[in-house]
């Protein structure tokens, strides 16, 4: 379950995607947990592939590192072959659930409605959704970036309520920047975080946004650029793909904060 205080902390979430085997995930989690035991002001979360969740959960259990999942299904239980419910994720000790990552929107054809259903299911189990939003290069070139972001945030959070202990993370991830090795300019990430905040104003109260919602940045974050994205309000953390796959690099990244 969410601890009341975690929304005060900066968040560094490692998205391992489908890059590691189950045993590699466990070894990486062990190396990270060993080096990053005490982290005042920063919360680290590890998001392994589904089959490695239980084992990585055992590694981080009792440590100040959170467990995250890369996806969830919107139904609680039933005949949905291949899917995983938020209840099962919770049972495994998951706290963060990535929802609507651009790779799933692209390859699995996830729609705004599917993403909205996943957000509701995640919150219902007391878990923290990490809603990913971001424009494609074509949308950016067409001058539609802010509109796309506002549409994605508004659609995904339709009907969502944040009871006092619940939290929400929104990750701004420009699709064209993911895995490119070149993050966006800080000013652009800050501007987009303000657009997200503006969209949230129509959904939640300012006090809820302040206490229960964190906006983070993702897209080619590495040890050299991480500090700026975490320390520049309203950004409160990062979602890290490539740079989270090697223990030394990821530990170095977290130590910049
Ligand atoms: P990247 O991935 O850090 O490799 O760009 C980020 C993400 O897709 O979450």
Low-pLDDT parts are none
CATH architecture: Alpha-Beta Barrel
Q: How many domains?
A: 1
CATH fold topology: TIM Barrel
What is the number of E strands? 8
Name a few traits of the molecule.
single chain, 257 residues, alpha/beta, TIM Barrel, eight-stranded parallel barrel, 11 helices, 8 strands, binds 2-phosphoglycolic acid
Q: Can you characterise this structure?
A:
The chain is built from 11 helices and 8 strands. With 257 residues, it is an alpha/beta fold. The protein has one domain: TIM Barrel. The protein has an 8-stranded parallel barrel with strand order 1-2-3-4-5-6-7-8, surrounded by 5 helices. Helix 7 packs across helix 8. The site of 2-phosphoglycolic acid (PGA) has 13 residues, from strand 8.
Provide a brief overview of the structure:
This protein has 257 residues and is of the alpha/beta class.
Q: Secondary-structure blueprint of this entry?
A:
Elements: E1 10-15, H1 22-35, E2 42-47, H2 53-60, E3 65-69, H3 86-91, E4 94-99, H4 102-107, H5 112-124, E5 128-133, H6 137-141, H7 145-156, E6 168-172, H8 186-201, H9 206-212, E7 213-218, H10 226-231, E8 235-240, H11 247-255
Parallel strand pairs: 1-2, 1-8, 2-3, 3-4, 4-5, 5-6, 6-7, 7-8
The protein binds 2-phosphoglycolic acid.
């Amino acid at each position: 379950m969410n601890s009341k205080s975690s929304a005060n902390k900066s968040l560094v979430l490692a998205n391992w995607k489908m890059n590691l085997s189950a045993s590699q995930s466990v070894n990486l989690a062990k190396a990270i947990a060993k080096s990053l035991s005490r982290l005042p002001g920063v919360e680290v979360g590890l998001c392994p592939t589904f089959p490695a969740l239980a084992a990585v959960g055992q590694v981080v259990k009792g440590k100040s590192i959170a467990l995250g999942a890369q996806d969830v299904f919107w139904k609680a239980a039933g005949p949905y072959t291949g899917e995983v419910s938020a209840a099962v994720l919770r049972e495994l000790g998951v706290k963060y659930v990535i929802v609507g990552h651009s790779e799933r929107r692209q390859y699995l054809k996830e729609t705004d409605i599917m993403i909205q259903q996943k957000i509701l299911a995640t919150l219902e189990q007391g878990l923290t959704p990490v809603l990913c939003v971001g424009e494609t290069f074509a949308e950016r070139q067409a001058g539609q970036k802010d509109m796309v972001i506002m549409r994605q945030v508004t659609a995904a959070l339709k009907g969502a309520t944040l009871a006092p202990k619940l939290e929400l993370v929104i990750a701004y991830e420009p699709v064209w920047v993911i895995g490119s090795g070149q993050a966006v300019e800080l000013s652009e990430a800050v501007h987009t975080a303000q657009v997200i905040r503006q969209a949230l104003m129509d959904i939640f109260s300012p006090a809820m946004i302040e206490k229960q919602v964190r906006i983070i940045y993702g897209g080619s974050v590495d040890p050299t650029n991480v500090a700026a994205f975490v320390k520049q309000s309203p950004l409160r953390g990062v979602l890290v793909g490539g740079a989270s796959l090697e223990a030394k690099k990821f530990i170095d990244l977290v130590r910049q904060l």
